[in-house]
Amino acid sequence: MSKKMFFKIVTDPEVDPRKCIVGMACANQAINDGHNVNVFFASFGVKLLQSDYISKLDSSVGTPEGFCQGILKELVKNAEGIYCSTGSQAVVGLTPENSDGVFVEGLDLIWSGPPGVIQLAADSEVQMVY
Hints:
With about 130 residues, the chain is of the alpha/beta class. Helices cover about 40% and strands about 20% of the residues. It has a single domain, classed as Hypothetical Protein Ychn, Chain: A, CATH 3.40.1260. It starts with a strand and ends with a strand.
């Protein structure tokens, strides 16, 4: 039976990059298993959405070149929605106005904040935090 799942990626990839990738891989697995998945990136986890950043993460995670970016691209392609914290993006210097070309290709990013997190959590049946 399909569930509505909500994944929050909030871990700083500088602190625990493997945890971040595991979270995204689990979100992809949930999609592959037929669940409806929304993902919200917040705190320093928002850096994972940047094409340059995610493409260099493999050496920190111990995965083959292109692995981390591939996981993100699959998530972008198949998730119901990819959300980010507007405030967290601002801390790393990004806004909707200055972020063209920064994020991974094909990302239809939904900028939000605490009200979006609460709504996604309330609408979901399962929440997972990484």
